[in-house]
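tokens incoming
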């Protein structure tokens, strides 16, 4: 009887211990699922003339974080934590971007991201450098997905800044690999936005044309105010009158869409060599006049001819079925993957810890492989050059924004082929 009682007590103790463990495990799981998110402050123009580009970036970043969160979030010693994007509207102005940075820091956000303005990016880099020196307990990382002025990872490189887009000289080199083979081309018109990026594009265009196609005459070379021109007809008239066979431009957003639309209406029938002619209304604005004549360079295109790439794009279209939302960039997806990888390897969300691992980031997605170059914090990834054509033509399975026009890849550069030397002399903490 005593023996039986002891057995019952042991059994009861075992049940109680199991119940306690189960309760603890459940609590731990709940705590992990309810863990404080890792917040990423997106500082971008969400109102004003370039609001459409800001909203497009937001969709990309949200989709990228959803992928990380769907697999359980970012794995940390204290439990998995989800990624969340917090929006800060810079209104397309550098001063507003700096104000947004202060707001993000006040909310204890330690990772900020921005891209649609090299001028704003430059201001953010300088402000973050100073803040991180003054307040090492609240240091901030800056992830840049689109600001491509080469100086940002060369003369003005910063330990706290990581660029995930190919800079303007890399893009120009890829674009020039196609332009230099156009033996019929004898004259070109250079036009760009009058700020650091636009100036850098035209400067590099002049340099590379001189070295790779000295026979091509530059018949126009001008900068225009950024985001202030509503009617590009006067510029289009000058392009037409110059006799240019092609226009080379780094314009983006409405400054590109309105330019190409005005050129078409003016009767310009030459080619456009662009950095961003493959989205945000440009194909629809150009129409049939752009078939075989509008060339763009990017880190990736929907019509990259691989099954992995097609599945990736189809997944994006399922998530955002509205044709107007068709603006997906591989580099933004790779950026979030790199951040998640770096945090997991660091086992910490502290900016200084994550930076060490972000320098070593190497990620793969949808058949694309990329790595961060530690020396200058310039992401090294594939680049492609594509030409506009009607959807359904060979190599153009997918169109852009429901326009009926897409881009066929005509040149692919591996990360090694796209890589350029740097002039960064980085100061490290």
């Amino acid at each position: 009887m005593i023996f039986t009682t002891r057995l019952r007590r042991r059994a009861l103790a075992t049940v109680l211990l199991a119940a306690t463990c189960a309760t603890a495990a459940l609590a731990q799981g709940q705590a992990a699922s309810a863990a404080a998110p890792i917040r990423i402050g997106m500082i971008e123009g969400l109102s004003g003339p370039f609001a459409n580009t800001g909203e497009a970036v937001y969709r990309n970043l949200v989709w990228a974080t959803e992928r990380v969160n769907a697999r359980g979030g970012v794995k940390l010693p204290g439990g998995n934590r989800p990624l969340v994007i917090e929006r800060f509207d810079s209104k397309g102005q550098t001063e507003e971007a700096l104000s947004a940075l202060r707001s993000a820091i006040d909310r204890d956000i330690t990772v900020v991201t921005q891209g649609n303005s090299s001028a704003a990016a430059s201001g953010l880099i300088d402000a973050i450098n100073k803040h991180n020196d003054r307040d090492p307990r609240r240091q901030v990382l800056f992830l840049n997905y689109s600001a491509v002025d080469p100086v940002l990872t060369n003369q003005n490189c910063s330990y706290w800044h990581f660029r995930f887009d190919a800079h303007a000289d890399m893009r120009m080199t890829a674009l020039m690999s196609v332009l230099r083979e156009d033996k019929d081309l004898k004259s070109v018109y250079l036009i760009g936005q009058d700020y650091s990026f636009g100036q850098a594009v035209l400067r590099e265009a002049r340099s590379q044309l001189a070295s790779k196609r000295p026979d091509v005459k530059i018949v126009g070379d001008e900068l225009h105010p950024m985001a202030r021109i509503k009617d590009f007809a006067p510029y289009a008239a000058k392009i037409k009158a110059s006799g240019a066979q092609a226009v080379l431009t780094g314009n983006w957003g409405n400054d590109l869409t309105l330019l190409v639309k005005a050129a078409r209406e003016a009767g310009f029938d030459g080619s456009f060599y662009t950095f961003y002619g493959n989205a945000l209304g440009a194909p629809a604005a150009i129409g049939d006049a752009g078939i075989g004549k509008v060339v763009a360079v990017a880190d990736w295109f929907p019509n990259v001819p691989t099954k992995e790439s097609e599945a990736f794009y189809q997944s994006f279209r399922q998530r955002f079925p509205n044709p107007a939302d068709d603006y997906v960039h591989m580099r933004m997806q790779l950026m979030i993957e790199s951040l998640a990888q770096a945090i997991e390897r660091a086992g910490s969300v502290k900016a200084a810890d994550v930076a060490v691992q972000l320098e070593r980031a190497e990620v793969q997605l949808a058949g694309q492989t990329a790595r961060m170059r530690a020396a200058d914090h310039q992401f090294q990834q594939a680049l492609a050059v594509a030409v506009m054509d009607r959807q359904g033509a060979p190599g153009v399975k997918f169109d852009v924004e429901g326009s009926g026009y897409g881009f066929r890849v005509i040149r692919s550069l591996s990360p090694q082929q796209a890589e350029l030397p740097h002039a960064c002399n980085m100061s490290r903490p």
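note: Confidence is low (pLDDT under 50) at residues 1-33.
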